[in-house]
Amino acid sequence: MNNDHNTKHALVTGVSRGIGRAIAVKLLAEGFSVTGTHSKSAVPDELQQHPRFNAIKADFFNAAEVTDKIGPVLRSDNAPGVLINNAGIAAGFDMLDEDDAGWMAHSAGTMLVNYTIPAMLTRWVLPVWIHRGNGVLINIASRAAYRGDTGEFADYAASKAALTAFTKSVAREYSCHRITAVTIAPGFIETDMASDAIRLYGKDHVMKGLAVPELTQPSDVAEVVSAVAAGRMLHITGTTIHVNGGSYLI
Ligand code: NAP
User: Fold this and answer.
1) SS3 180
2) What share of the chain is helix, strand, coil (3-state, %, to 5)?
3) Is residue 186 within 6 Å of ligand 1 at its C-beta?
4) Which residue's CA is the closest to the ligand 1 atom numbered 27?
5) If you measure from the C-alpha of residue 192 to the centroid of ligand 1, how many angstroms do you get, rounded to a whole number?
6) What number does the ligand 1 atom closest to the CA of 192 have?
7) From the CB of 86, is ligand 1 less than 6 Å away?
8) Are the C-beta atoms of 192 and 177 separated by less than 8 Å?
9) What DSSP assignment string belongs to 16-67?
């Protein structure tokens, strides 16, 4: 196995838009090769045309498709040395209005995309990393895991808390193999996911309470991700890095 090559190869989920796109752009600029996943949206040209980028189309609601398309990459002896679970959904939902069947379906969908599939991808690559004696896992959770969210996004918050606890368990069990497992918890980031809130309440309102005088951008998250992805931070394993413009400090 070629470790040097593998440590500079990252699989990033959800590169078609927002934070994932910014992470892929940053890692390519840092000399990484990037395998990026997307689902409904096209991969932007700046990634698609890059010689060190390749794309995989897989919908996380379709576990069989994820297994077929992403499984072989992560289970291979030549698997990427860095896995960044970024793809996620935040679908608002009134948990008191829905009947039980509606709530079960919504909750299961959110957990599948935001927790179960990211954990599955991790399961696939861990044996390869253990054999190699290195690997970096970065899971993109959310401020919602720490501060909770509105009732509408309670499922979302719970799914991100699950991902955070999973990351800690990976760290506790596998960092003895020099595997770094870190959660990144973005605050409010200016992407499509956040656009509804900005439209509804206005930028000034969503900026209230930030210590810094601007909204956090996807590139601010990408900066932190690339520092961890470089693989020189084994001793922060299991921790969460909050990227939220000082909106809450823990
Ligand atoms: P975004 O702009 O909505 O982009 C989401 C990405 O996830 C897209 O690339 C999308 O791919 C992919 N994705 C969505 N559903 C998918 C599915 N069913 N299967 C496969 N891929 C899917 O979101 P973002 O703001 O960049 O968020 C990225 C991550 O940061 C998410 O995990 C989110 O929870 C977290 N986060 C965001 C914020 C924020 O304020 N923006 C705050 C805290 C945490 P397609 O478009 O190709 O389907």
Assistant:
1) strand
2) 50, 15, 35
3) yes
4) 19
5) 8
6) 2
7) yes
8) no
9) SSHHHHHHHHHHHHTT-EEEEEESSSPPPHHHHT-TTEEEEE--TT-HHHHH
- Domain ranges (residues) in the chain: 4-243
> Considering the entire predicted model, what is its pTM?
0.98
Place of tokens 């951008």: 217
- The predicted-structure confidence for 171-182, as pLDDT tens digits, reads as follows 999 999 999 999
Whether 160 and 114 have beta carbons less than 8 Å apart is answered as yes
Give pLDDT tens digits for 41-85: 999 999 999 999 999 999 999 999 999 999 999 999 999 999 999
CA distances from 157 to 51, 55, 90, 234 (A): 37, 29, 9, 27
Counting atoms of ligand 1 from 1, which one is nearest the CA of 61?
Answer: 18
For the Cβ of 12 lying below 6 angstroms from any atom of ligand 1, the answer is no
Quick one: CATH architecture of 4-243?
A: 3-Layer(aba) Sandwich (3.40)
